[in-house]
Every structure is written in C-alpha cells, then in structure tokens.
C-alpha cells in the first residue's frame, strides 16, 4: 500500500516509522520519494500509520512547551 506524505509531515516521517514499526513489527515500511510503502494492505493500517505520523508531528511541535512547563515545576 502506498501512502502519500504531505511535505509538512516530512520532518517527522523517520521518527513516525520507528514508532509504527514498534507497534506493527510484522509490517515493513519503505520510504519512497513522495511518501511510504507498507508491505501490507488494510484500512486499519492506513489509519494507524497516518495517526502515528500526526502524533509524532504534535509531539515534536509541543516539545518546547512541555520542556518549559517541566522546568517551571522544578
């Protein structure tokens, strides 16, 4: 299954693949020019990969805020 990845998500792709591979160890993910290829099909995997990529984007974008909040508590 080919999944196109929008350029806004490209900086988070490799980290998302690591997380996805942990959750779905039997699914091989290959980075392509415009996205990724999963060696398995299914709407569930498509949704899971997109969700993982979106979560990684949120995680990275809020890292500074979380760090500042933690530092203010210490």
For the record, the CATH class is Alpha Beta
Number of domains: 1
**Percent strand:** 5-15%
Report the count of strand segments. Answer: 3
| Global geometry | elongated
Category from helices, strands and their pairing:
alpha+beta
- Amount of helix: 55-70%
CATH architecture: 2-Layer Sandwich
Tell me about the biggest sheet? 3 strands, antiparallel
- CATH topology: the name is Alpha-Beta Plaits
Mean pLDDT: 94
First CA to last CA: what distance? Answer: 46 Å
Give me the Rg, rounded: 14 Å
List the uncertain runs.
none
Please provide the ordered H/E string of secondary-structure elements.
EHEEHH
Strand order of the largest sheet: 1-3-2
Number of helices: 3
Keywords, separated by commas or semicolons:
55% helix; Alpha-Beta Plaits; alpha+beta; 74 residues; three-stranded antiparallel beta sheet
Description:
The protein has 74 residues and is α+β, with helices and mostly antiparallel strands. The protein has a single domain, classed as Alpha-Beta Plaits (2-Layer Sandwich). The chain contains three helices and three strands; from the N terminus they run E-H-E-E-H-H. The chain has helices spanning 13-23, 43-61, 63-73; strands at residues 2-4, 29-31, 35-38. A three-stranded antiparallel sheet has the order 1-3-2, with no helix packed on it. It is elongated.
